[in-house]
Amino acid sequence: MLGKKLGMSRIFDPDGNAVAVTLIECGPCYVSAVSETGGVQLGFEEVKEKSLSKAEAGHLKKSKLPLLRNLKEVKWQGSDADAPSVGDVFKADSFNEGEHVDIQGVTKGKGFSGVMKRWGFGGGRKTHGGTTPRGPGSIGAGSDPSRVWPGMKMAGRYGGANITAFNLEVVKIDPAENTIAVKGSVPGPAKSILFIRRSLKVK
Known about the structure:
Elements: E1 2-12, E2 18-26, E3 29-34, E4 39-46, H1 54-62, E5 68-75, E6 89-90, E7 100-106, E8 111-113, H2 115-119, E9 156-158, E10 162-174, E11 179-183, E12 193-198
Antiparallel strand pairs: 1-2, 1-12, 2-11, 3-4, 3-6, 4-5, 7-10, 7-12, 8-9, 10-11
């Protein structure tokens, strides 16, 4: 399913322990298309027609669905008899309390960053004549190989990456508000779009 990150909060369990959770607006997700190869296209977040291109609006109108901002195609893993059809709606109650999910999102962009922030380097000497306290140091020998190896950890753009958080427990579901509370943090800032699926690596 697709959802929107609302922010973080905390919930007290039956033993009185505070549990940090992330609140996610989970659905409603509409099935906007189904392919012959088992692909299912989900749509989320209703918008006005001016926010979409003519092709996107025409595609959704043809399926007689609301105008949706976010579309994502996923592979249907269930049986053919239970396969969804165009127009079906999935909401937060599609998940169950206590089960584990994987959540995919885009992390916060940090801009151009040095090696200490980006990779956790220790830095150079800060005293006794050190001239590069936050520099990367040597990046390779001069005679052999006389070049910089591909993949060298250097300064550059940091954040804004597609990251998946695995095995997060669904602590609470609120069908009235169409939200779920997931234990721990998830990638991305508030109001960012997330992709939620049942966990593939259950412990």
